[in-house]
Amino acid sequence: MAGLGRMSRISCSIPLEGPGLRFGHLSVPWSDDAHAYGVIPVPIAVAAGHPGPTVLLVAGVHGDEYEGQFALRRMIRALDPASLSGRVIVLPALNLPAVRAARRVSPIDGMNMNRAFPGDPDGSPTAQIAHWVEAVLLPTVQLAVDLHSGGTASEYLPCAYVYEGGVNDAQKRALADAFGAPLAVFVGSTAETRSVSAACERARVPMIAAELGGGGTVSRAALAAAEDGVWAVLRHAGLMPPQPGDADRRTRPVRVPDRSHFLMCPTDGLFEPAAWLGDTVAAGFLAGWVHDTQDPSVPPEPVAFAAGGIVVARRLPTLTRRGDTLFTTAVPA
Ligand SMILES: [Zn+2]
Fold first, then answer.
1. In which band, very low, low, confident or very high, does the pLDDT at 4 lie, cut at 50, 70 and 90?
2. Is-contact 253 332, C-beta < 8 A?
């Protein structure tokens, strides 16, 4: 928890307390050869009405994941703050340098925002942003959703990600049902303490993540899941009146039991898939073939699933190295 007690160097251009709809930015100090007295202006928006809980909605933790960025930008502009029973804080591009560069990690400091918590007020920009979120923002929040997708290198079936084993498991399950993605992947709490989910766990804030699509682009299904989900979360939190059918929103719980469900590529080459997102496979089923990059006389090497289930994620680039995860399979939870 180093640094949590020290003051953030980040200032916020808008008040986060008080009714109304406001758009602003976090000023993250940044100085280099080209920007001597610059800031990184991380966008933030708040909508607040009557007294009620605070919901935090985050996207752009990874800069090349777009469904959540679109859904949050769209949602906050459509909100009528006077009708809200509570407060919504939106950070649609949390790692702005990564968003500006269309990259997973920040090009400034090479840091993955989801490995930067609890952050450091005297650290690099990614570490400073993480510190501000955990030390300044999360103590004021009652519910959080962090919207991800597969990024440039992979794609997912639209799903919620629920980290179990900490506090608030029941609230997280209810939040995943309300979010309403077709699947919810339950993962045991890991030793990973540097993620947004770990920060929320430390702050005792019920939180889910989502993995909505990927490929460095968006799909109709993933966009729809993001947009439907964020509005449903606001109703679930009581900020807005329920709609017909809200009580029946459910997600299908699945689990990735162990490392064998991440199918590792056995050799370098060109991977030709034989399985696709949403397929149900068994151990031993053909997943695809790795072709020699240059010599067509070499027979392609078949790759079989080591563990069965529903294919919930797949690697996208064809050029593949030994050690890459080709597919992720999940089993009913
Ligand atoms: Zn991500």
1. low
2. yes
What is the fold, at CATH topology level, of the domain defined by 11-255? Aminopeptidase (3.40.630)
CA 137 to centroid of ligand 1, rounded, Å: 20
Rounded to an integer, what distance in angstroms lies between the CA atom of residue 215 and that of residue 293?
Answer: 23
Q: What is the rounded CA–CA span in Å between residue 136 and residue 199?
A: 12
Domain 259-332 bears CATH identifier 2.40.50.100: yes
Please write the tens of the pLDDT for every residue from 40-58. 999 999 999 999 999 999 9
Ranges of CATH 3.40.630.10 domains, the chain:
11-255
Q: What is the dihedral of CA 24, 2, 162, 49, to 10 degrees?
A: -30
Cα–Cα dist 250/283, whole Å: 28
Between the CA of 326 and the centroid of ligand 1 the distance, in Å, is 17
Q: What is the pLDDT of residues 248-273, one digit of tens each?
A: 999 999 999 899 999 999 999 999 99
